[in-house]
Structure formats: C-alpha cells, structure tokens
C-alpha cells in the first residue's frame, strides 16, 4: 500500500549534555517527517495520529549508506550536514598571563 509521499530526513543526532568526546557517536539517522497532524483522542485524552512512519528511526554508520537506502526505496530525502564543533584549547598558563581581562576566581 503506497501512502502519500513523505520526505525522509537524514542527519547526525546531537550529543547529549553528558557527552564531551567523540566516542560512541551513533552515526546517521533516517527518520520521516510527520505525515499528518496529531489529534486528541476523545476517550483517553492522549494525542496521536494514524501515521506510523513517524515512529521509525533507522540508524546507519555512514551518510552514504543512509542515502543509498533512501534511493533504493525511492524515498524523497533531505540531508542535514552536521555543524562543525570548535573546541578551544585551555592552557593553564593563561591563568597567569599579563593583561588578563577576566577576574581571578580563586
């Protein structure tokens, strides 16, 4: 049964606040955009929809594998490239540098 054409989103999920390193990154994720609005169930009061594709999250180790899966299954897709992460190195000697603008904290 072919439903309405939905766009798949391929992206790298962000790290949680508890992660600082690059280890255990989960790779790329392919998930579908919502196909219909959620509605309130009159009996239970829960919100939901008849769109079951919204529950699907496929994980891939590389971007190329996720794109190949989408193309093999004739899915319209958009790729979101990850933003580069800049890490400024902290140097202990900066605590004692001349002309330092920050207050001494201890």
TrEMBL record:
Signal peptide: none annotated. One of its GO terms (cellular component) is membrane. Keywords: Electron transport, Membrane, Respiratory chain, Transit peptide, Transport. The keyword Membrane applies. Pfam families: NDUS4 (PF04800). It comes from the Bacteria. It is found in: Membrane. GO terms for biological process: electron transport chain. InterPro entries: NADH_UbQ_FeS_4_mit-like (IPR006885), NDUFS4-like_sf (IPR038532). PANTHER family: NADH DEHYDROGENASE [UBIQUINONE] IRON-SULFUR PROTEIN 4, MITOCHONDRIAL, NADH-UBIQUINONE OXIDOREDUCTASE. This is ETC complex I subunit.
